[in-house]
Design brief:
Blueprint (H helix, E strand, L loop, with lengths): L2 E5 L3 H13 L3 E5 L2 H10 L4 E4 L8 H10 L6 E5 L4 H10 L3 E4 L4 H15 L2 E4 L2 E4 L5 E3 L2 E2 L4 H13 L4 E2 H5 L7 H15 L3 E4 L3 E4 L1
Parallel strand pairs: 1-2, 1-3, 3-4, 4-5
Antiparallel strand pairs: 6-7, 7-8, 8-9, 10-12, 11-12
Helix pairs in contact: 6-8
Length: about 210
């Protein structure tokens, strides 16, 4: 289930949006002002931010700028009654991925949220490792990592099965010369190169955790 952070100071609108989004399968945390949003963003991991601009204590654009400076690149949709080009431009310069003008149809917001969270499903993050499941690109602390073909295939298999273990027989099929030793060596190299935790599940195979 995708988890969203909603920054909105209008209680009526917030309750309506939260109920609608929860009905459509999203978990939503609500911040009534910018400082609450800061605390929640530090305490939790979110798949998407929904930020109004004119909120108490810290406005949505300044908050987004601070988060981006802190290397928080969580996709963000700004929802605001400010429809002038200057405000829209400031929102995108601050790091917004989308801008929705009030008043709006909740169904339109849902469509935009689905578009952003669908892209997230193409990426897998664990610790400081991020893998693009479509392209196979691997990043460690934001920097590209080049693995051999076999190790890349093993990693993708482990990720696609996560959090479940991958049967040993499946992993064997990915090796050029299948053997217990070859599999152990490649898993060991993978752990060393990426610093990821891969454990052996007795009688089953291997699991990335």
């Amino acid at each position: 289930m995708n988890r969203l952070l909603l920054l909105e100071d209008d209680p009526s609108l917030s309750k309506t949006l939260i109920k609608y989004l929860q009905h459509n399968g999203y978990e939503v945390d609500w911040a009534k002002n910018g400082e609450e949003a800061v605390e929640l963003s530090y305490e939790n991991r979110y798949d998407l931010y929904l930020f109004d601009i004119n909120v108490p204590l810290l406005n949505g654009i300044d908050l987004l700028s601070e988060l981006r400076e802190a290397d928080d690149h969580t996709p963000t949709i700004i929802i605001s009654a400010l429809v002038d080009m200057e405000s829209v431009t400031k929102g995108f310069i601050a790091g917004a991925d989308d801008y929705l003008k009030k008043p709006f149809d909740p169904e339109e917001l849902l469509i935009r949220i689905k578009a952003k969270t669908r892209a997230l499903q193409e990426r897998f993050k664990i610790g400081d490792i991020e893998v693009n499941l479509q392209t196979g690109e691997i990043l460690k602390e934001g920097k590209p990592v080049i693995l051999g073909e076999v190790q890349s295939k093993l990693l993708l298999s482990l990720i696609r099965h996560h959090p479940n273990p991958v049967p040993k027989s499946d992993l064997m099929e990915l090796l050029e010369k299948p053997s217990d030793l070859a599999l152990r060596v490649n898993i060991s190299k993978l752990k060393k190169n990426l610093g990821v935790n891969i454990k052996s599940v007795r009688g089953v195979g291997y699991q990335i955790i």
